[in-house]
């Protein structure tokens, strides 16, 4: 079953886009994409996930793909969108996966709906940016420039300059990727879906990305990370040049019982296989 262009409408009139990739009998996973990103990130991983018994459901955050922008949103504000998609699909319980920027959203779901989230996998995730060392380790004008912008319009201008209105400059500043990441983005499967992923990531220009950064810049204040009760596995590339591994260590210190697994030769974009393996492991737990 592959359904890439599903939508639902929230009570406030906003549209939420999502994909549903995998067998309906598989273990459901609400996939929280990176930033920039879209629901197609889950679909891209879905081909590998199906034989593993996973059903990946990717959800466009506001301002990405098919989802209406939501200026001023917090991380916690998104949880209702995730639960609305789960309700629409008839899912009482599910795993969550948060990749990069999506880490906070997967953890917020677990904190705010503990009776429904049975496990969390964080892949090369950003952490609570009140942690000075992790914050300092994030580089580039598209990160600190947006965080430090005087207002949202200025932040949009900075992000648009960094990425291009259509995302055409997204990889221009990533010249220091480790070999594992280079192999990932030059793989024929990845290349084949690159144009459609980019189009959805920038369907609203840089709005989704900017609102992600304005939500995570102040830190994880909108939800209680201490309320996470589901098992959490954090996987991170030891050679990650986009989100430093110190962020993973900090997140692990905040989450009771979290398990941190660092893969020395992997980077940010090559963490997919360990993330899927961790999801399979959590799916098999009682």
CATH superfamily: Alpha/Beta hydrolase fold, catalytic domain
Major sheet size, sense and barrel closure:
8 strands, mixed
Give the strand line-up of the largest sheet: 1-2-4-3-5-6-8-9
The counted number of beta strands is 9
What integer is the average pLDDT? 95
Classify the secondary structure makeup into a structural class: alpha/beta
As a percent range, the share of strand residues is 15-25%
Low-confidence stretches: none
Q: In CATH terms, what is the architecture? A: 3-Layer(aba) Sandwich
Number of helices: 11
- How much is the radius of gyration in Å? 17 Å
Overall structural domain count:
1
Note the topology:
Layout: E1 2-9, E2 15-21, E3 27-32, H1 40-49, E4 54-59, H2 79-88, E5 94-99, H3 103-112, E6 117-123, H4 132-137, H5 141-147, H6 152-163, H7 179-185, H8 188-201, E7 203-206, H9 207-216, E8 232-237, H10 245-254, E9 259-263, H11 272-284
Parallel strand pairs: 3-4, 3-5, 5-6, 6-8, 8-9
Antiparallel strand pairs: 1-2, 2-4
Brief write-up:
This protein has 286 residues and is of the alpha/beta class. It contains eleven helices and nine strands.
Description:
The chain is of the alpha/beta class and 286 residues long. The chain has helices spanning 40-49, 79-88, 103-112, 132-137, 141-147, 152-163, 179-185, 188-201, 207-216, 245-254, 272-284, and strands spanning 2-9, 15-21, 27-32, 54-59, 94-99, 117-123, 203-206, 232-237, 259-263. The protein has an 8-stranded mixed β-sheet, with helices on both faces. The longest helix is centred in the C-terminal third of the chain and has 14 residues, at 188-201. It is globular.
């Amino acid at each position: 079953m592959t359904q890439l262009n599903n939508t639902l409408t929230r009570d406030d009139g906003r549209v939420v886009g999502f994909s549903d990739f995998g067998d309906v009998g598989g273990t459901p996973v609400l996939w929280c994409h990176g930033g920039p990103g879209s629901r197609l990130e889950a679909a891209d991983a879905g081909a590998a996930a199906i034989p593993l018994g996973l059903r990946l459901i990717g959800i466009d955050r506001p301002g990405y793909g098919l989802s209406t922008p939501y200026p001023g949103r917090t991380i916690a504000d998104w949880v209702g969108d995730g639960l609305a998609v789960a309700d629409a699909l008839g899912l009482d319980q599910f795993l969550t996966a948060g990749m990069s920027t999506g880490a906070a959203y997967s953890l917020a779901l677990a904190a705010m709906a503990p009776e429904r989230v049975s496990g969390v996998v964080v892949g090369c995730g950003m952490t609570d940016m009140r942690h000075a060392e992790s914050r300092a380790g994030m580089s580039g004008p598209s990160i600190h420039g947006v965080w430090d912008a005087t207002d949202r319009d200025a932040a949009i201008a900075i992000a648009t300059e960094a990425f291009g209105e259509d995302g055409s400059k997204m990889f221009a500043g990533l010249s220091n990727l480790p070999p594992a990441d280079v192999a990932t983005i030059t793989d024929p499967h990845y290349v084949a879906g690159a144009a459609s992923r980019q189009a959805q990531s920038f369907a609203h220009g840089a709005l989704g990305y900017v609102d992600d950064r304005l939500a995570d810049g102040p830190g994880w204040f909108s939800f209680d990370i201490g309320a996470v009760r589901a098992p959490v596995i954090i996987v991170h590339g030891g050679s990650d040049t986009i989100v430093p591994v110190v962020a993973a260590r900090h997140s692990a210190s905040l989450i009771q019982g979290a398990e941190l697994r660092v893969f020395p030769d992997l980077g940010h974009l090559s963490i997919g296989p360990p993330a899927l393996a961790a999801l399979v492991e959590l799916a098999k737990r009682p």
